[in-house]
Design brief:
Layout lengths: L1 H9 L2 E2 L13 H15 L4 E11 L2 E13 L2 E6 L2 E5 L4 E5 L4 E5 L5 E2 L6 H8 E11 L2 E10 L5 E9 L4 E9 L3 E12 L19 E4 L1
Parallel strand pairs: 7-14
Antiparallel strand pairs: 1-8, 2-3, 2-13, 3-4, 4-5, 5-6, 6-7, 9-10, 10-11, 11-12, 12-13
Amino acid sequence: MKNIVSKIIVASFVVGSVGMMQAQKIDAKAKKILDDVTANYNSKKNSYFKFAFGNGMNGTVTKTEPGIYYVAGDKYKLKIMETEQIFDGNKIYNINTEDKEVTVAKPNGSAVMFSPINYLTTYRKDYNVTYAGKKNVNGVNADFIKLTPVKANGLKFIYIFVNSSTKQMLKLEQYGSNRDIAIIDIKEYKENQQLDAGMFVFDKTKYKNYLITEL
């Protein structure tokens, strides 16, 4: 499980730029839904998501673990199992408490992190977007949107499920070209909380016994 988390949560999926001959197709209805959700989240001082992270192969989830995600502006903290990731607006800190390792790196401009809201902005240039109708998700009649990469990037497609009445995402499913699957199922959402001033700060003094590698 740890390797799966490291691959999907910590490692970036590098998305290729869109070629001139590969025209992007975005359904107007799907675009409005995603833009409304994005605008809703961006209007908040901060947001908190508690979610279930599932993964498996061949479209079947075989393991599920709880996770949390805080975001404020362009800063965020993502935590699941023994893995924590902090982006302070400048650098990404990948912290593995089991192996006592920290990796520090500058974000790649074309990198996509697998988080509750990562695809809300990257879809605009990297994916064909289709409105796929309605689907019941946790008792909600959700809008179902399908994202397909314009250019090969290791992913086959992404499904996003949205509660349009609240303009909030309910679920995200990511299917890899190698037949693996990763799912974020949002269980709780809070906004505009009073967060600790150090929420998005990496404090090196807390990791004196860790191997810290800066890429």
